[in-house]
Amino acid sequence: MKNLNLKLKIWRQDDSKDPGKFELYEVNGLNTHMSFLEMLDVLNEQLIDSGRSPIAFDHDCREGICGMCSMVINGKPHGPMKGTTTCQLHMRHFNDGDTITIEPWRASPFPVIKDLVVDRSSFDRIMQSGGYVSVNTGSAPDGNAMPIGKEIAEDAFDAAACIGCGACVAACKNASASLFVAAKVSQLALLPQGQPERGERVFSMVSKMDEEGFGHCTNTGSCEAECPKEISIDYIRKMNWEYHRKNIKG
Ligand code: SF4
Ligand code: FES
To answer: pLDDT for 185-197, tens place per residue?
Structure first.
């Protein structure tokens, strides 16, 4: 087992008003089996022991589910490994002596709260504007009463893999949230439960995305390339089709 000695160039920022700056740190003797977040935990213990303020970063599940561990590592949202969240990135993918640059998501609808932590409540507001289905009270329907074709179910499941992390926004030069919104709109448009609000949903969620300050899709595909859940850009085509469908049907 190798040990790693690293230099870390990390963005420090007190709040959204603070201009922020990079600071350089060193961590030595790291185990290559550590995750990237465990490496930051080691650094934070050192900082706390020496009376300095720890690096603020978001995390929760640490198993690629919650979408909290948002940070840009060496210029790439969630770091260098394809289809991998920061919490599932391991230190064996780095070399002894490396300097690693770590920054928050850079997008105006995601203001920095502190250091690497950004406010992603704009995503919550987009979800509140239409990312739900009607719930009728009463007993649960029989599982076989609503058959869904295998291909449709798998398509909806692929869209449902979106964890709402915001890497697509951070990767896009227009800070577009199109891939996130498209995944949510498509998932619900494919399923019977999503039909009652189908047209209103796409109108509301796209309007809210614009209102929150996200830019237009650039069609360059950087969102798909950096998405840790490898959500296909084809869902943006499906979202646009849903939008036109609503326009035509009224
Ligand atoms: S589409 Fe991908 S990158 Fe965007 S929020 Fe969902 S999981 Fe994250
Ligand atoms: S901490 Fe939950 S996805 Fe990384």
So the answer is: 999 999 988 999 9
